[in-house]
Structures are given as structure tokens and as C-alpha cells.
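Format notes (please read before filing issues)

Several people have asked whether sequences and C-alpha cells are stored in separate files. They are not. Every record keeps both together, in the order shown below: the sequence lines, then the C-alpha cell lines. Line labels are part of the format and must not be stripped during preprocessing.
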Amino acid sequence: MKQFLKKILIFSAVVMTIFIAYELVLLLVPNEYSYKKNYIKRHKDSLRVLVLGNSHVADCVDATLLGPDAFNAAQPGRNAYYDLQLMREFIHQMPSLECVVMPLSFDYYYWGHLYVKEHSPKFNTYRCMYLKYMGYPYADGEWWHWSEILNSNYDHSGRLLKAFTAPLHELTMCDSLGMEIDASYDLRAHNWDTLQLPSSTPLPDSTELKLNYRHNVKIYSEIATIMRENHKRLVLVAMPVYKTARRHVSQRQLNEMTAFVEMLRRVNPDIEFYNFIDDPQYTERDYYNSIHLNNQHGARKFTPQLRAIIDRKRQ
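Then the structure lines:
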């Protein structure tokens, strides 16, 4: 019996050693989380325009068209909580920063990792990657999300294998200035216009949505206050959506979006908000799916609009 227990202990020790070694080796392989935070660290003294937020801007803001010292640090699925953590860490280290751009649309203030999506594998992946590669635990401080083996669906084994052969942009899934490369017009699905349609009208009629809303009020309010106190511009943009998705957006949602911005402005009146949801210049070839512009035609149309807003205010 003692010999059997000894073998079990030895086997467990070997497995645990492999487990830990694997997790540590993954830290050496670039990915979009580590790349974007390290870019900010390296360029914090010179960055002038910083794009934060989720895939709605990660896919279509081409920082090469925003002028010098601009970077797109947005990432798919990002909750504004993580944008707040970035601001808390870096805002006092960015003397040249003039403007932060973030998306805000008809349902973002009801969207969060807490409550409804707490146990979703997709959101556990986000929590893991932000913790492990950016150093930001989620609000509950669950440090066990650090392990990719236990929490991430990010294909860590494939990333490890590609580390020896793939170019950097394939590992980071973005170009050198942060724009995501997977939202390509040429690779969009044949049914792109029905993909990611709003599945329901997210109205504040449930406990979960109300809790998310209150949580996001605190987050956006603190971001706005941080920007105001440090004399930086905060530009919020509601991104264009294709007509198939627009049919799912109610007037009540649009009114709530406007009301949310006005609420933020009561304390931080300098917040800028630009609504592109119904902008008629965006046509079918500008989209990757029903709610995302693509990184080719859409990016070349939207980024110059965004630059004009940034430059106009600066003059």
C-alpha cells in the first residue's frame, strides 16, 4: 500500500510539474493580450491617441490612418471594466496622451461579465487571458482564472506550436498598431448579414440586467472622471450597424443610449459622443457581419471620420 501511494504521489508530482511548466512556457508566446499591453508600456511616453473597447472598434480603427503615435488597444469581447484598469495603471504615465476613444452603443451598458455571463466558457476565457497576460483580475478577484488549461478556450496548444513558425501578426491576431486582422471582407461568411444579429431587446426588466447596468454606470463614470481630472478627451462612438441588425434596435434602446451619455455628462460635461448607427454612407461592403465593420473597406471609411473628429477638436 505504501508503494502504491508513493507511486501515486510521484505521478501527481510529475503531472503537476508538467502542468506548471506548460503554463509558464505559454507566457513566452506572444498573443493579442500581452502584445497590446506591452505596446502601451513601451510607448506610454509618446502615445497621443489610444483606442480602447471591444471588437466594434478593434476590427475597424486603423491606427495608421489616425496620425502619428496612435494605437488601437481594443480587443474582442472586452468589458469596460478592463479599460478602466488600463486607465488606472497608465493614465499618469502618459504625458502626451490627448484622446481616448471608446465604443458605446445601444446595449453596452447592460453588457457585462457579472451575473448572466459569469459561468460562460467564453467569458471565463476572457477573465483568464486578462488576468494572466495583462495582470487584471475581475472584480471578484478569483485568481484561479490564471490557468489557461483550466479556463481558456483560446487554443493555447495551437498557439504554442505556431510560436516556432508563425509570424508575429498571426500570434497576436492584429497588425503592428493593434487593428484586428480576422474581420476581413474577403473572408466573411456568405450569410454575414444575419450573423450576430441582436437576439433580443436588452431592456432593464430583469435583476441581472439592472445589476450589469449599475456596475457599468460606476465603470464609465470613473473612466470619465479619470480623463477629466487628467485633462484628456474621452470620445465615445456608437458604431454603424447594417440594416438587418438595425431592424432589431428599438427607439427605446436609442433613447436609453442617449440618456446614459447625458447622465455621464452631468458630472463630466466634456464627454464627447458621436452616433454613427444610422450613418447612410456605410454600405454592405463595409461590414464584416451585421454589427461589425470590416478591417478593409469599413476601416478605410470610419477611421478618417474618427481622425477628423480628433483633429477638429484639437485645433
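For reference, the curators noted about this record: The beta strands are 49-51, 70-72, 99-103, 233-238, 272-275, 287-289, 292-293. The chain has a mean pLDDT of 89.
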